[in-house]
């Protein structure tokens, strides 16, 4: 039963607006049909909730599409390369097309779920904290917490899959963003000043190359399996040659000179290797001279590099510049082809110069040892100057992440570092901390991002602008 009507409304069909929910939406003289009941949420609140849900669902779908497209595309190119090797070489393990399709779909789904869950979790936590504490009051730390909580979504790539290299790479990206923020700071600007060096990216690449290429020759087990496979392919040398080079650099007796001779004989080169040799040039390039070997290796290396960079440029062009392809397809495709050619030139020069510098150093000093391998592979990083300036830091950080992992693995194997048996998923913890920093910078220090990365982040996450305190108070009063 309705409460009795009093005052000027007595004896009419009007009702008093004593309900709090009616304050912003109806007047005391309004008809009862125009005043929503206390159990029904205001239209503005419904609109806001639907907008938040739409953002979470959209972020999840976009994250899934990016993860599935990138990883699926790279997996597809890898599968095609394996199928090609299977048909061309009887020694390669048989790999069928059905297995390749299954592998591609599996990788695409795993990484799609990973990025989709990450994006959806971040958007959900971001909206939840904003709803509970207010966008302005939580603006300084909300994205940091959301990025930290979303980080463990990496586990969806496989509970037994270690992603130490990826985690270190993301940590380095976070460090770069944090350093850019520090450069602008009056308090920390002088500390971060060395990070503004024009050619610091090339120096990092040289430093990384010294560790990575030394490990490629001396301790391949310290490298991630996928990266080791990549180096073995583009290093262009049979494993028997690398073993012989490792023996002479380590000062050990040769264990496989006959195997190396048999390998060269299978390529049409009849050579007899001296077990007393001091420099390993005959092992590295047989009867070729050092200069002839570098030129022929460069041509072969360029052919190997082209399939690597085609998906690197074409897939982002389809995702990031999808609308531009409809308006100016020739320009975007031309830039993608030019970028592929340029990056392939970098990789082929990088690999061929590694053998050039080591051969020059070995012949100059008339000996070969571990420190000389490290010194000979250091200037290899100069090849990074071929790449665009905007890509140099990205490549150097990618290689630095693998160099750091390899270095600490070598230190642990040598007994200089303790191995932790309790904390087995350090990669997830590192990734979570890194994504917290990155997402905080994205929400609060957007100017430290390059425009192309910022466009992708905006497209996926759509972090709303933080309103001023006065606007936020008005919004809460309206609710």
From TrEMBL:
<comment type="similarity">
    <text>Belongs to the TMEM135 family.</text>
</comment>
<dbReference type="Pfam" id="PF15982">
    <property type="entry name" value="TMEM135_C_rich"/>
</dbReference>
<protein>
    <recommendedName>
        <fullName>Transmembrane protein 135 N-terminal domain-containing protein</fullName>
    </recommendedName>
</protein>
<keyword id="KW-1133">Transmembrane helix</keyword>
<keyword id="KW-0472">Membrane</keyword>
<feature type="domain" description="Transmembrane protein 135 N-terminal">
    <location>
        <begin position="289"/>
        <end position="409"/>
    </location>
</feature>
<keyword id="KW-0812">Transmembrane</keyword>
<dbReference type="GO" id="GO:0012505">
    <property type="term" value="C:endomembrane system"/>
</dbReference>
<dbReference type="InterPro" id="IPR031926">
    <property type="entry name" value="TMEM135_N"/>
</dbReference>
<dbReference type="InterPro" id="IPR026749">
    <property type="entry name" value="Tmem135"/>
</dbReference>
């Amino acid at each position: 039963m309705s409460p009795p009507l009093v005052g000027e409304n007595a004896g009419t069909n009007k009702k008093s607006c004593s309900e709090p929910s009616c304050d912003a939406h109806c007047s005391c003289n309004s008809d009862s049909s125009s005043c929503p009941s206390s159990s029904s949420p205001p239209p503005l609140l419904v609109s806001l909730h639907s907008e938040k849900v739409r953002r979470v669902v959209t972020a999840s779908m976009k994250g899934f599409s990016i993860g599935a497209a990138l990883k699926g595309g790279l997996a597809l190119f890898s599968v095609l390369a394996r199928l090609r090797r299977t048909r061309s070489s009887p020694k390669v393990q048989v790999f069928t097309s059905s297995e390749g399709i299954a592998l591609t779909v599996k990788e695409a789904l795993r990484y799609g779920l990973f990025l989709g869950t990450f994006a959806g979790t971040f958007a959900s936590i971001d909206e939840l904290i904003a709803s509970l504490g207010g966008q302005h009051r939580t603006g300084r730390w909300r994205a940091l917490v959301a990025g930290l909580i979303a980080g463990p979504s990496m586990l969806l790539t496989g509970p037994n899959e270690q992603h130490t290299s990826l985690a270190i790479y993301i940590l380095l990206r976070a460090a770069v963003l944090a350093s850019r923020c520090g450069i602008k700071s009056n308090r920390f600007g002088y500390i971060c000043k060395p990070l503004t060096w024009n050619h610091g990216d090339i120096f990092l690449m040289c430093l990384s190359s010294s560790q990575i290429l030394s490990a490629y020759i001396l301790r391949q087990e310290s490298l991630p399996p996928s990266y080791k496979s990549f180096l073995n392919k583009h290093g262009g040398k049979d494993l028997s040659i690398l073993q012989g080079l490792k023996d002479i650099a380590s000062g050990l007796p040769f264990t496989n000179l006959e195997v190396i001779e048999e390998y060269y004989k299978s390529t049409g080169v009849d050579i007899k290797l001296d077990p007393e040799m001091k420099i390993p040039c005959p092992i590295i390039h047989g009867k070729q001279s050092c200069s002839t070997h570098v030129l022929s290796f460069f041509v072969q290396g360029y052919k190997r590099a082209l399939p690597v960079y085609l998906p690197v440029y074409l897939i982002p062009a389809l995702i990031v510049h999808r609308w531009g392809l409809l308006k100016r397809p020739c320009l975007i495709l031309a830039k993608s082809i030019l970028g592929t050619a340029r990056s392939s030139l970098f990789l082929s020069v990088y690999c061929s110069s590694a053998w050039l510098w080591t051969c020059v150093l070995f012949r100059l000093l008339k000996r070969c040892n571990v420190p000389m391998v490290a010194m000979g592979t250091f200037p290899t990083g100069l090849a990074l100057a071929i790449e665009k300036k905007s890509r140099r830091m990205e490549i150097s950080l990618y290689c630095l992440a693998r160099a750091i992992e390899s270095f600490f693995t070598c230190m642990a194997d040598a007994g200089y570092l303790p191995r932790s048996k309790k904390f087995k998923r350090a990669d997830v913890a590192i990734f979570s901390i890194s994504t917290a920093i990155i997402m905080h910078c994205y929400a609060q220090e957007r100017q430290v991002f390059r425009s192309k990365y910022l466009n992708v982040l905006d497209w996926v996450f759509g972090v709303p602008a933080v309103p001023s305190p006065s606007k936020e108070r008005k919004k809460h009063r309206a609710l």
